[in-house]
Amino acid sequence: MDERLAKRFGKVLKLRRIDCGLSQEELAFNTDLHRTYISMLERGIRQPSLSTIFILAEGVGCERESLVKDTRVG
Amino acid sequence: MDERLAKRFGKVLKLRRIDCGLSQEELAFNTDLHRTYISMLERGIRQPSLSTIFILAEGVGCERESLVKDTRVG
Predict the structure, then answer these.
(1) If both were cysteines, with which of B26, B44, B59, B67 could B6 make a disulfide (CB 3.0 to 4.6 Å apart)?
(2) Looking at this predicted complex, what is its ipTM?
(3) Mean pLDDT of successive 10-residue segments in chain A (74 residues)?
(4) Nearest to A54 among B5, B54, B64 (CB)
């Protein structure tokens, strides 16, 4: 796993979630993902699969490619 | 795993790879991924993680978000 990439993605996700006014608990509830898993994603400890990327994008109300697009590396 | 999503992604990947004039073997070599894994991705049997999405996008010479953007569901 590319840790730097996961960390960048986590930051993007967190910013989007906060922009939406959602807590981790609320995003977890809306997406049927575990709150602990969302916390790990935001800290870059886990990285999402394709389907999780789609679920999260919907959860924070953005286009499916936005989270990937905003994850800049280097 | 969302099978339909994985199948759509696989089709997008395959089209891009063929557009680039690459065989599965060549894409595997360029990306350091296993040819069998690329075959499974293209058939929608496996779905990629975030870092694999980045690696594949680079391997087929497109923007990091393109493969996700082109994966339309429904």
Answers:
(1) B44
(2) 0.90
(3) 91 96 97 98 97 96 93 80
(4) B5
